[in-house]
Specification:
128 residues, rod-shaped
Length: 128
């Protein structure tokens, strides 16, 4: 009798696990399916209504400086390829760097000002 109860419990646990797995897979598929449908719909939209990725146009001098910086919004990316629009994120920092370059500051001065404003975490290689 005890053996039957143990076998029944084991079967019950296996069936419950399978159901949870199928449900999780279904929900994950549903979520990615929605995203896929949104992307396919946006490609069918007229050009004027499509949302363009936000990017900051920066000069070649600013690009060289940005290559040495991290995005500090929490995305944990290097700044150059990052396109986030978070507060204290890629767009804001790139714009700040370009503004300093436009003011005629030297690379070391720009980096110093960026570190002053955003902290040491902004540097890819901390000089500590």
């Amino acid at each position: 009798m005890a053996q039957k109860k143990k076998n029944f419990s084991t079967v019950l646990v296996i069936v419950a696990s399978l159901l949870i797995g199928f449900l999780g897979g279904y929900l994950a598929g549903f979520r990615y399916g929605i995203r896929f449908n949104r992307e396919s719909l946006s490609s069918a939209m007229p050009q004027q209504f499509q949302r363009q990725p936000s990017r900051v146009d920066i000069s070649s001098i600013a690009v060289e400086i940005v290559k040495e910086l991290n995005c500090i919004c929490g995305c944990k990316m290097e700044l150059l390829p990052c396109t986030c629009e978070e507060l204290r994120g890629s767009k804001e920092i790139k714009h700040f760097v370009q503004t300093l370059v436009d003011e005629g500051l030297l690379k070391s001065e720009v980096v110093g000002r960026v570190v002053e404003k955003y902290g040491q975490a902004v540097l890819i290689r901390n000089s500590s």
